[in-house]
Structures are given as structure tokens and as C-alpha cells.
Amino acid sequence: MNRTQKVITENFNTYKVEQIDKYIENGGFQGLKNALEKGKDFIIDELNISGLRGRGGAAYPTGKKWNGGRQTHADVKYVLCNADEGEPATFKDRELLVKDPYKVLEGLAISGYTFGAKEGFIYIREEYEFLHDKIRKAIKLAEENGYLGKNILGTGFDFSIKVFSGAGAYVCGEGSALIESMEGKAGRPRMKPPRIGVAGYMGKPTQSNNVETLAIVATVLKMGAVNYAKYGTEKSIGTKMISLCGNVKKPGTYEIPFGMSLREIIYDIGGGIVGDKDIKFLQLGGVSGPLMPKKYIDTKYTYEDLEAEGFGIGSGAILVADETKSVIKFLESVSYFFFHESCGKCTPCREGKRQMKKLLDKMSKGTATTKDLKNIEKISRIMTDASFCGLGQTAATAMLTAIKYFSPELCSSIDEIKAL
After folding, report:
1. Are the C-beta atoms of 241 and 10 separated by less than 8 Å?
2. Where is the NADH-ubiquinone oxidoreductase 51kDa subunit iron-sulphur binding domain (predicted)?
3. CA pair distance 231, 239, nearest whole angstrom
4. For the segment 122-147, what is each residue's pLDDT rounded down to a tens digit?
């Protein structure tokens, strides 16, 4: 039985970027037409009914965000599509840009109309350079067909989109760091307030949304929020794109309804574990997410069910590790990633990652002491509480959950404890 859905992904493999006519035949740009015809109040109402929450990881209600944004008054405003998909194990946004670029552009145009912006940017991570010309081609064809540019669909709405390339920094997934890099500065997060919704790109109000969020906006305004809300659960409405990877037989990007269990996702969709081994742990939401031991795999994939157990959806990544994987080796790779990606702006993150990397190296070599294990927990908590931005605040999440759920394995690397 097919457990996946084709709501957000309805247009996958139905057209090439040169074939904008096929996107239109599929009902493409109907969401934009409905938005321009029925107005901003209609858009906000539909987003509220759809229950859409931002899919970049923060899960903030999109209707509430957009309603607040449109009430910010300024002579110039901007909208952004954040396609700096740098979270390891996450690749769903890439699939949307590859297989349905016009839906993302349509969602960004609706965002621009609602926010009161005439110019938008799609910020694509440097590693997705192969997509730049494809997106530029889509923009050009959308302009030639009257869906972008001047006087869109004869409504008087002007809106243009430009492609901007990131330079490979993980921290630029954070909105203010992304904008700093667009302005030609080092990609480091800004002090808040003001938030970018008040003073963002070039000091002007800027509304940023994730790729999947914008694709869902176009979907909801095409099919109607009531129809979209038929999927999912009461509190986690609709469908979600996930990046399933690790030791599963069929890794890939899938669209699922909220409410499936993690076991169903891994075995019914992912085909089970390679070599039919047992599961040891999952990591949800990318490398900044927690480690989840096997005992939780019957948890439903919803915001509320995962939060009740101390986990989260985050970026939509589900990484599966089998019984042969070492938790310490896994933590070493996580630690090295964040050590490499820390922008160095604040001491808790910069120095915390350096010390954590050293201590994990000792644990991996079997030379750590009980004091080292206590210090690594202390450093992790300081990083979480005192770091300047989300990178440092979440960099120790995997470590802290490993201490909570895999303490015997961590202690097994310490001679003093093994001797007891």
C-alpha cells in the first residue's frame, strides 16, 4: 500500500523547466490568481485554516507571521525564499527546486503580494549551484508569461525575483546571517531586536520563508485550505516532506500525512533497515536535532506527539542508525561539523565546540576520565543556554540526548568506570 501523498509534490516529474505551459495545464499559478483576485484577508484566512507552520525548523504559524508582516509599513519591503538548505541529512527543498521550481516561485510571488514587496530573492546554497541557471530560466519564462514582472495578470501588482548564491556557510541558514551575507558582509547573525521583519535586507522590512513553506502556500491557495486540512491530524494539519536517510533500504524524499508513526515511515516507506539489522537510534531534524533511541519509534510524526516526548520535527530530516553504529563516533562527526561551521562570533559556541571536540576525541581513544564526561555535559549546557544564535544553542543537542539515553555506552569508554 502506498503510504505517501502527492499534494505538495503533485507536479513532480510532470514537466521540465522549459515547459511552463505544462505547469499551467497542471493548474499552476491558480493559487496566485486566487490570491490576487480575492485579496490579502483571504490569503491570511486560508493560511490560518490550513494550520501551516513554517517548514524551515521553527514551525511558527505562517498565517500569524504573514499577518504581522503585512501591517509593517515602509516605502520598500523585501521577501526572501531561504533555500540555504545546509542542515545535514536534509534535502527535501532541493527536490522541490529540481522538480517543481514554478510552485516555489508562485509561493514567493504570493508572499510578495501579501507583504507589500515588489522585489524578492531566492537565496540558494552554494552547493546547489547547478540549480542557479534552472531557477533563472524559470523566472524568465514566468516573466514572459505574465506571472512575474510588471502588472502581473493585469492586476497592477509588480513583482520581480532575483537569484542569490550563498557561499557554503551553515550559519547563513539563520535569517539575519543570510541577509548579512547578501549585503556583502561576513555571514554572522545580528543582535535582535530589531528582527528582520522590521529591519532586514538593506535595513528594510524583510519576510523570509522556507522553500517548502512557499510551495505549500501555493498549494493551499490553489486547492483551498479546507481541502488541505483533510490531511494530517487535528493539531498537525496537512502533509510534510521528509528527508529519510541513513541505514534504510530506500532513502529519499517523501511526502507523508502528519500522524504516521516513525516505525511506519521507516519500514513501510523506507523499506526497513539495510541487512535487516535492528535500529539503534534516530536523529530527527538534522544534525542539530536530538538522538532518539529505538524505544520511541512508535511515536506519531506530529508536532505535538514528538514534543511530548522531548523531540521535534525540525527540518524534516529522519536519519536512521542501525545497531552497529557507535554513538561516540556519531557524536564525533556531529561535533566536527559544528566546530567547522561555528562563525566564531560568540565565546560559548566558539570555545565550547573546541573543547567538546577535544573531549570526544579522548572518549573515542578510550583515554577520557569521569571528570571529562562531567565537563562535556557542563560545556554542552553552557553552549545551549549562552550561545548567541541557534547554531550554538543547538550544537550540543545530540550530545545532551546521548547523555540522557546512551549513558552506559558513553561510560564504557572510560577506564575508571569500566574498572568499577
Report:
1. no
2. 328-373
3. 6
4. 999 999 999 999 999 999 999 999 99
Between CA 47 and CA 63 the distance in angstroms is: 5
Q: How far is CA 351 from the centre of its chain?
A: 26
Cis peptide before 251 (omega within 30 of 0): no
d(Cα 59, Cα 322) in Å, to the nearest integer? 29
E-strand stretches of 247-316: 252-257, 279-284, 291-293
Number of H helices, E strands in the chain: 19, 10
CB 407 within 8 A of CB 331: no
Provide the percentage of residues in the chain whose pLDDT is more than 70.
Answer: 98
Please tell me whether residue 79 adopts helix, strand or coil conformation: strand
Total length of the chain: 420
Q: Which three cell numbers stand for residue 75?
A: 516605502
Distance CA 216, CA 78 (A): 20
Q: What is the pLDDT of residues 55-94, one digit of tens each?
A: 998 899 999 999 999 999 999 999 999 999 999 999 999 9
Among the listed residues 121, 122, 112, 120, the one whose alpha carbon sits nearest the alpha carbon of residue 155: 112
